[in-house]
Amino acid sequence: MSEAASHHDDHHDHHPSGLMRWLTTTNHKDIGTLYLLLALVMFFIGGAMALVIRAELFQPGLQFVQPQFFNSMTTVHALVMIFGAVMPAWTGFANWMIPMMIGAPDMALPRLNNWSFWILPFAFTLLLSTVFMPGGAPAGGWTMYPPLVLQTGAAFPFLIFAVHFMGASSIAGAINVIVTVFNMRAPGMTLMKLPLFVWTWIITAFLLIASIPVLAGAVTMLLTDKFFGTSFFSAAGGGDPVMFQHIFWFFGHPEVYILILPAFGIISAIVPTFARKPLFGYSSMVYASAAIAFLSFIVWAHHMFTVGMPLAGELFFMYTTVLIAVPTGVKVFNWVATMWHSSMTFETPMLFALGFIVLFTIGGFSGLMLGVTPVDFQYHDTYFVVAHFHYVLVTGAVFSLIAATYFWLPKWTGHMYDEKLGKLHFWLSVISVNVLFFPQHFLGLAGMPRRIPDYSVQFADWNMISSIGAFVFGFSQLLFVVVIWKCVKGGEKATAQVWEGAHGLEWTLPSPPPYHSFETPPEPSTIEGGMR
Amino acid sequence: MEPDSRQAANRRTARKLLLVTCVMFGFGYALVPLYNVFCEVTGLNGKTGRLNEAQAAALTVDEDRLITVEFVTNVNAGMPWEFRPMVSKVQVHPGAETVVEFEATNFAQWPVTGNAVPSVSPNTAARYFSKTECFCFTQQHLDAGETRQMPVRFVVDPKLPEDISTLTLGYTFFESLQPDETAEAADPPRS
User: Fold this and answer.
1) pLDDT in tens, B7-21
2) Which partner for B59 in A125, A137, B95, B140 could form a disulfide, CB atoms 3.0-4.6 Å apart?
3) Do residue A236 and residue B21 have CB atoms under 8 angstroms apart?
């Protein structure tokens, strides 16, 4: 820290080239790009694992993989997608966009920024190397419940330290975002003028620094239980395995909002742009996000209704869970109200944003069903849960990430992307993702349990349809890479504003923007309130 | 703002946030004792009541009520013991102390130390059920082939809610992770 202070900000002119440029960069755009590339690679690694799962489930019986390996795939798929794809992607967007949106030259803590990215390749090398270890990768589910997870072989310490690294990285990223927004805003950029993406990220960052350390504690307890003779979760030594579930979900529920809150910010940027209307209800959006964040800390036990809680506990967690529908409903209402009587056009970012609103809402409704205690006893650990969280994470978080990429890609590269290919990507994705996940609702309601490589024959038809959807969806994503590649390489020149209805400081910079965003703060008069 | 003062402000904010991170890491650990206290206060998780012998003796016996107390025993997977109650259930008056015997046999070729973990169902009744003497208070050490009868003395609080007429006391024996000194000499073979 003291070293950073002695020679600040004077490395404009001499950045090394080649690999060293990327290893040593402290530039928010470079680091943002690194995060996004890592997320894209992880998205395809996690996606390949998902296809192993769906290939095995194409028919009943064991076809391709052993049950142990199948369980490893479900476990590592989840860890890679959550910690490797979605979370780094959000940090990547935060790095790229937040300084440009608030009129700052860079992130507040550039060296910390470099470290918080470069921890991640090590974390995922640790995690993914376990797939090739004797005894195999962790196979007890991404939730790491003891005592099952303690039976993991050589992979166990790798899993724990990988989680520690991922956690450290995201905490560092979160601290950087908060410091940047609190201290680096341009004069005139008051809190209630911040774009909603910045607002939702700030709230996400607070969720991160409040919840990830609890996860770090929980996995450290697992580590000491396994190797150092403690008995936090071992009944033989006076511990309690159910306590792990409480501690884990105290982290785990805020985590789901860490994955989705920035998406709300993205949609709140895209919808007004293509509706050519200011966002309806800016301040209610801010308060709704804060309310969701608060509620996320008091609903954790709805993930574990079946552990044997007293009635009062089940009622408390049911009511608070269902209460989350209110602020979330405010948001959906505001997006719809923004589109009401507007002049909408349907470019690819808007298509993905609309897909998000419809499909995320379906995922929200199935979440409400799961939040109702008596019915959860039927749905618990079935494919209905799998369908629910894939609607909120794939058609929710991932769709919004794709929407955001299309939205800002012309700004980053200076070129328009191929609109035809983009639209093809959308339609293939939106159809196949529903073929993939919608039948899983039926499977779950019919009683098919999750995390199993084989199933009874009455589940065969919908599983086959779901697997077909999975392969179409998976391979459609290659189109996304083609579009990005073509756009980086060239294409029609993008204007500074890019989209006719775009408002906000990032659109006042040329496309592509200069290496350092706002060397001098923007004129206060260029700062518009809220989303307009 | 001057760059230097801004850097100082950045560092101040970052330090505060780092402190929050550390506090939350500590909070994760603090959840462990909080969880136990919460369970004891509410009687959740089958944690039983805490009457001592003197308090138990001072209870008035409610001759009008009969409560059935059932016994369930388990041995954790892999532990080479047999463990059973001598009677599967008894009928008791609330407030009257009762003694029942349990029997454990170690059929391994080596000594084994075990911990019995009790649990009472329904959990709303757990706090009205107190053990004044129990083999679960200490570790049990059985030599190879040894059989031992172990008593439990318990009392049901007369304040037990009216709608509860049957209680189940469950015990699971776990092989001790920290064997007491007497077990030190014999290290069980592990496979």
Assistant:
1) 899 999 999 999 999
2) B95
3) no
